[in-house]
Amino acid sequence: MAESGTYIISFWNGRPYMSSLHTVAVDYNGISYATYNLKGWGNISYAEPSEYANNYICGYYLGG
Questions:
Q1: What domain of life is recorded for the organism (predicted)?
Q2: What is the tally of structural domains in the chain?
Q3: What pLDDT does 4 receive?
């Protein structure tokens, strides 16, 4: 995730293989990352990728 743009990332919610898979969108502007995670109806939260890096499964770069 070194190039500016949008990524789709999947990671384990808890213990790998023993918890649910979670998928979020990540924006990188060349300086900072924002992770968008729809919670509930219309509420959007964001977090740094370091919060889920240890549970990372896969990701896709969508472009800038």
A1: Bacteria
A2: 1
A3: 95
